[in-house]
Amino acid sequence: MLPLIVAVTYAVWEMSSQARAQQRLVMQQAQISHLSISVQELSKEIERAARQFQLLQESSFLEILNIKQSQLEESIKNIKSQLPEFKNNKTIKTISETSSEIGNAAKNAEGDHAKQLESLYKELKDNSAMLSEQLTTAIQSALSNSEKELNNVLWRVLVTGLLALPASLFLLGASSMIVNRSISKLSLAIHHLGQRKWDTKISIKGPSDLIELGHRLEWMRIQLLTTEQQKAQFTQHITHELKSPLAAIMDAQSLLAEQIPGSINEQQMAVLDILRIQARNLQELIQQLLNFNAISQGVDAHSEQIDLSAMCTKLIARYRSFLPESDFKFLCSKELVPVTGNTQLVEMILSNLLSNAIHFSPTGGTITVTWGLCDIDRFGMPDLSIQNDGQLSHWWLKVCDDGPGIDIDEQEAIFRPFYQGKTKRQGSLKGSGIGLAIVKACVTQAHATLTLKSKKDEGTEFTLYFPNI
């Protein structure tokens, strides 16, 4: 807006100057018109006084003549001061000389002097009229010049305004772009803070207020990152500290179950089975905490050939050993599909998805694990119509259950660490709330894509798409 303000200021100044100039011109024209009339009137009065003195020969008329001549000289002097170009004007000089000659001739108005006076009267009258015309012409010329100057001023003001408007729009657009860019960076920084992406430094350029806000967001980022690191260190420390007493408990349970200290009855054996199962569940929770810490700090991203069938069989066997009394039906794909990826990441994903399905499915429920190859179409969507072709760019993994499903309003929140949903899991041990957070983190590190389909009381389907590299 600065160029527009400058243009308006310039226009006001120019118009103000022009108004003052017009005012001065009007006053000058009025004075010149008055002086022109005064010269003509004084010329007539000089002629009248001279004739009266010539006729009556009274000294009073001669005094009047001298006064009128002095007034005429004063008017001529004022004309010269108002119009410098008239200082050497021949007409003014002639009027002044003729007036003096009339005064001299009037004192001796006999014979030839009488005839001379008549000639001088005529000459004074003609030159007064000529001077009036010249003054009128000068006034008209001044008006014409003033009109031209006014037109020039208007033209300059118009050009300045035309130049100032696009300049103002350009500066406004540039400043808006800078502000919008700064706001976009702030919005992205806030989004990253909400997404727990705290490793990128926040640096905002632009207006001072936005820079200050960027500094405060950077301070917040550092505080969140520090808190997260402290929390990770604490979690890692406490989980390692829990593993040792838990291992001792499990060893003691094994010794008692093998009746090494002495024989036990069936009721005592049942209690030991409960102890074994709950100790295994606790061990799984501790391992999940360790996995969450490990994935948060990053894992080696190397790729290798993965045997999905063997991995699925191993994980199902492990969960059956944890829950021998469970009555789940597992349907696992048997096809040997050549896929590549990070084994550690894929195993953590599949392990947590199976654990989630087991703990939220009803007794006797069915859990299905399938996989295959696919390609990505021109719309960026996976094409599952062709499978088992080693030339395809991606492979998919799907885990389905027939549990209670997930409410639509919880389908984003369930991937946040330590979130506990409305639906309660099966069993007496409460979950840690980090299983699906581990899945989400592993998906991100594996550069994969995760989709979730679920409706209340209609089961849940997790599908992942991995690059087959």
From TrEMBL:
The reaction(s) this protein catalyses: ATP + protein L-histidine = ADP + protein N-phospho-L-histidine
Protein keywords: Coiled coil, Kinase, Phosphoprotein, Transferase, Two-component regulatory system
Enzyme class: transferase
Coiled-coil regions listed in the entry: 32-89
InterPro entries: HATPase_C_sf, HATPase_dom, His_kinase_dom, HisK_dim/P_dom, HisK_dim/P_sf, Sensor_HK_Regulatory, Sig_transdc_His_kin-like_C
Enzyme Commission number(s): 2.7.13.3
Kinase is among the record's keywords: yes
Keyword Phosphoprotein in annotation: yes
Cited PROSITE patterns: HIS_KIN
Record-linked Pfam families: HATPase_c (PF02518), HisKA (PF00512)
Name recorded for this polypeptide: histidine kinase
Organism: Zhongshania aquimaris
Lineage of source species: Bacteria, Pseudomonadati, Pseudomonadota, Gammaproteobacteria, Cellvibrionales
